[in-house]
Amino acid sequence: MKPASQRPDITDAQAWWRGAVIYQIYPRSFRDSSGDGVGDLGGILNGLDYVASLGVDAIWLSPFFTSPMADYGYDVADYCGVDPIFGTLSDFDRIIKKAHHLGLKIIIDQVYSHSSDQHAWFSESRENRTNPKADWYVWADPKADGSPPNNWQSVFGGGAWGWDSRRQQYFLHNFLRSQPDLNLHNRDVHDSLLDVGRFWLARG
Question: What GO biological process term is on the record, naming one (predicted)?
Fold first, then answer.
């Protein structure tokens, strides 16, 4: 299979990803370079020659960010950090450098709809209703009887609202209770997530 850049049906005027072949890598299970039984960024680096030999155009990396791993990395505690079980930011930079040398693009699976409840943003948001990040997550008052504001259900089962005793409010979690939903109607949240995107784009 030829990469999109070498196929006559993909013109220069089209976005590179139209017709591109993208290889997904789930870091935890792809390749282990440290011998601890968990796949890591070093393993990905060592496997890039193999991936390139398949003729793909890009690699889609599943989350490798700092996380308590309640949802295998989809509960992010630091959007600009690499979880120690996977390696370091320098390891990621080496992946970028080698991937580009091999003609591969890198796509990072960013998780922008929610964070971990251990993220500093949520820790501040739940302190009270007046702090600078009070509106960074989806909060709602209980009904008169103390029950959740509605009957929305989590993707993982059960109600989608978690009670927080400090704020005396419910917070929305479409997945695990430990994955509170960000308030994407808040402009400051937009700006912070865009900063995250710029952080990773600046690495190459």
Answer: oligosaccharide catabolic process
Helix (H, G, I), strand (E, B) or coil at 80: strand
pLDDT tens readout for residues 24-65: 999 999 999 999 999 999 999 999 999 999 999 999 999 999
Calculate ∠ Cα 47-31-107, nearest 5°: 65
Question: How many domains does the chain divide into?
Answer: 2
**Residue where a domain stops, chosen among 71, 87, 111:** 111
pLDDT in tens, 72-82: 999 999 999 99
Closest CA to 67 of 59, 57, 75, 79: 75
Instruction: Give CA–CA dist 4/57, Å, rounded.
Output: 7
